[in-house]
Amino acid sequence: MNATSFSLLMTGVMLNAGAQLLLKAGTNNVGVFEFSRDNIVPIGWQLATEPHIVGGLACYVISVVVWIMALSRVEVSVAYPLLSVGYVVNAIAAWYLFGEALTPLRLAGIGVIIIGVCLVTRS
Known about the structure:
The protein is mostly helical and 123 residues long. It has helices at residues 3-30, 40-49, 51-71, 76-82, 85-98, 104-122. It has one domain.
């Protein structure tokens, strides 16, 4: 895998991870909600106009374009497992940004993911 392919893959992964973090920040701002007949429009509007959610959706759109470019250069059996790096990024960022738990078991899982990604990229 060359540097361009790797850069495209990692850019796609980071955009996807950033999208998840922005969506979480947006839902934190909106708060807990349930859709019902009575509130689907007001809650839908609130979600559609929340800046973090809009930013997260924009990251997803851009990540799809970048990912398609990456897939044109790399086998999907190599590219797709690299999405796992997003789990690592999100776990650490969620701990840092949102105070989410980063337990020893989660850290062990992150270690397994990192080892797996290294094995796949070397294959």
